[in-house]
Amino acid sequence: MARTDTVSPGVTLDEASVLMFLVAGKQFAVDLSRVQHILDYQAPTRTPRRPPYVEGIIQHKGRYLPLVSLRKRLGVEGPDPENPAILLLAGVGQDPVVGLMVDQVVRVLSLPAEKLLAPPPRVFGIRAEFIRGVANAGGRPVVWLDGAKLLTSAEPITLLA
Amino acid sequence: MQEKFLLFRVGGEIYGLRLRGLREVLLPDGVRLVSSPPHQVCVTLEHRGRKIPVIRMSALFEASPAGIPLTARVLLTQGQARPFGLLVDEVLEVAEVDPARVGPLPALATLLPPSCFRGLFTRQDHIILLVNEDGLGGLDEVVQFYAAGS
């Protein structure tokens, strides 16, 4: 993977703080500043004719939030893990806060600019448009996702194994 | 001031219809399928000498189809000056709702027009989606039923 001085357009910083998590065994991250809360899984109320990657709605502190399955958004088939986590993300779409269901939260990661790379055209089958950058953690790649673009686009994605 | 809603079930979830929008609750006897599309979600019912369009809520909501259960009822209402019915799986009870406790339906929650819903409230740990009879009365299925002069 070629090193570049900057990552995806709009991302010029000395260090990025991200929250790293797992989906289908792969490491992903979202901008930590977007994460309001991390919740244990709660069964959603199924809403009628919802988008295929929306599980339904949950309630948190008096607000009703859509619950999105990142596994389904990335086209991962098969059963959900036993204890997924829910990240409450702000400012990633039309709704003020969205719940994003992931397999497992790992940790907060600080990514110095020199360790953050611009993505190639596709990473794990995900187009670069949905990726803010790629880094390395524990010898494995971490894909920093653009949550807003991922949740506002209807383009189907299939995560490659 | 509290508002009363009639709670009903479609598939595995509970919904509410504003009680002052409800005209009658009918048995689904005499419900007839409409032969020509696009009325896939709409059937008809003869009521007091006239044909009324009836929205099959399980079809509209893409809930489990499994025919019409014995507990099914037609909720006769009116929206946008058009009488129509809602065919639901089961009528439950009347609930009083404080309008201040009704929250908006998130945009991502459904692909149906937002006008079909009034919002959400929680009752005994259940989240209940409140339908809007005016919005439902504006659905293509109902509009085209009346436009066809049925």
Low-pLDDT residue spans of chain B: none
Write down the CATH class of chain B.
Mainly Beta
CATH architecture of chain B: Beta Barrel
CATH class of chain A: Mainly Beta
Please report the number of helical segments of chain B: 3
Q: Which overall shape of chain A is indicated by the principal axes computed on the Cα atoms? A: globular
**Helicity of chain B, in percent?**
10-25%
Determine the oligomeric state from the structure. heterodimer
Within CATH, the superfamily of chain A carries the name: CheA-289, Domain 4
The number of helical elements of chain A comes to 2
Count of discrete domains of chain A: 1
Shape of chain B: globular
Mean pLDDT of chain A: 90
Query: Biggest interface and its residues per chain?
Result: A-B, 22 and 23 residues
- Beta-strand residue percentage of chain A: over 45%
Encode the helix/strand succession of chain A as letters.
Answer: EEEEEHEEEEEEEH
Q: Return residue spans of chain A where pLDDT drops below 50 for at least 5 consecutive residues.
A: 1-7
Task: State the end-to-end distance of chain B.
Answer: 40 Å
How many structural domains in the coordinates of chain B? 1
Please give a structural write-up.
Chain A is mostly beta strands and 161 residues long. In chain A, 6% of the residues lie in helices and 45% in strands. Chain A has a single domain, classed as OB fold (Dihydrolipoamide Acetyltransferase, E2P) (Beta Barrel), CATH 2.40.50.180. The two termini of chain A are 19 Å apart. Helix content of chain B is 11%, strand content 46%. Chain B is globular. Chain B has a single domain, classed as OB fold (Dihydrolipoamide Acetyltransferase, E2P) (Beta Barrel), CATH 2.40.50. Chain B is built from three helices and eleven strands, in the order E-E-E-E-E-E-H-E-E-E-E-E-H-H. The model of chain B has no long low-confidence stretch (mean pLDDT 88). Chain B has a six-stranded mixed sheet. Chain B has a five-stranded mixed sheet with strand order 9-1-2-11-10. At the A-B interface, strand 4 and strand 5 of A face strand 11 of B.
